[in-house]
Amino acid sequence: MKLFGYWRSSASYRVRIALNLKGIDVEHIPVNLRAGEQREDNYAKINPQLLVPTLEREDGIRLTQSAAIIEYLEETVAGPALLPNDPLQRARIRSVMTLIGADTAPIQNLRVLKYLKGPLDLPQETVDDWARHWIATGLTSLEKMTASSSSSYLYTETPTAADCFLIPQIYNARRYDIDMSAFPRLSEVEATCLALPAFEAARPETQADAPDE
Amino acid sequence: MKLFGYWRSSASYRVRIALNLKGIDVEHIPVNLRAGEQREDNYAKINPQLLVPTLEREDGIRLTQSAAIIEYLEETVAGPALLPNDPLQRARIRSVMTLIGADTAPIQNLRVLKYLKGPLDLPQETVDDWARHWIATGLTSLEKMTASSSSSYLYTETPTAADCFLIPQIYNARRYDIDMSAFPRLSEVEATCLALPAFEAARPETQADAPDE
């Protein structure tokens, strides 16, 4: 299979973690979001939403949206479970996926920040504050929701889709110099995750399309 | 069960449709987002994310996030399926859920518009243009993705979770005077949905907490 993605896209990062946890090798096709490659005809045909990631199966059929891709992998590929069996636990995991994947990341992703800077002509500082505000809002809720839990990962003893979503969001928080000491529970889970090769190998900096420096 | 929601919240609207399609009666508890009731202690204890909807089971256990709630209902309640059986079809449905539930609605929901108007001090016209821009972006992608499909509902012959997400987003589009004639495929599916009692009974205007007028 092929994964069209971008090293720094948190949605791509989530799927890389999930693929690694499942032990699935894919060919990584970089789409340079900074350079606007997602808007070029080539990619627009692959993903009409002009977003990454896109997973292309061996038969050429394509799947979009990180949450949908991860659920698909869970339903079709053997290997470690990314969702628990119990429906209530599954709902908790999916609630975290949405808290991050809907209520946090999309409000501070590249296309939104570009709109604030371009059409709305807001200064860089205001744009950075915007990103910080929504990231901190999301992480504050998540810390509250999970503070009383003492499992190794967010809600479980093995990593789930919720952890696949958490780590890229914390990576974004650090990019915006958010003080992670305000989120002890999330930081603890982060350390546990990053010690796993599946998370380590998915890190943005280790991707082929990451700049050298 | 109890559903904490708000008549005009599109996330609440999605869950109302799903509950109706499954034939589940719940007690509706209104949380007035305009009046800021979601930030009051009472509700903050129910949903630390200060968002609606929250579904409370008879045993008092609570579930948050419309997508997670709908998946939970699908996994635990008999009745018409809100997701097809085929994993690839399920991925398509979930991709639509995310296109709307993550990449469209949360960028133009009340708390984001309030931030643009309050802290960023932008004029109402700019705030309205913002909402229109992101709604139109989402619907344009979705129209492209589904234009070649001729099924009664978005991708199927019976309504799915994708349709539960579509209809509230179109409702929001109309609030912002977006010309729906640009989206013939989506408009066709909308008409088919709104002819069903499950969708009709979930409409914002028919909710107990909707203003009279």
Q: Please, how many domains of chain A?
A: 2
Largest sheet composition of chain A: 4 strands, mixed
Question: Which protein chains make the most extensive interface, counting residues with beta carbons within 8 Å of the other chain's beta carbons?
Answer: A-B, 43 and 43 residues
Cα radius of gyration of chain A in angstroms? 17 Å
Number of helices of chain A: 9
Mass-distribution shape of chain A = globular
Please give the alpha-carbon distance between the first and last residues of chain A.
30 Å
Named CATH topology of the largest domain in chain A: Glutathione S-transferase Yfyf (Class Pi), Chain A, domain 2
Q: Using the coordinates above, name the CATH class of the largest domain in chain A.
A: Mainly Alpha
Count every beta strand of chain A, where a strand is a DSSP E run of 2 or more residues: 4
**How confident is the prediction overall: mean pLDDT of chain A?**
96
Regions of chain A with pLDDT < 50 over 5+ consecutive residues? none
The CATH architecture assignment of the largest domain in chain A turns out to be Up-down Bundle
How are helices and strands ordered from N to C of chain A?
EHEHEEHHHHHHH
Fraction of helical residues of chain A: 40-55%
By secondary-structure content and strand pairing, the structural class of chain A works out as alpha+beta
Oligomeric state: homodimer
Strand order of the largest sheet of chain A: 2-1-3-4
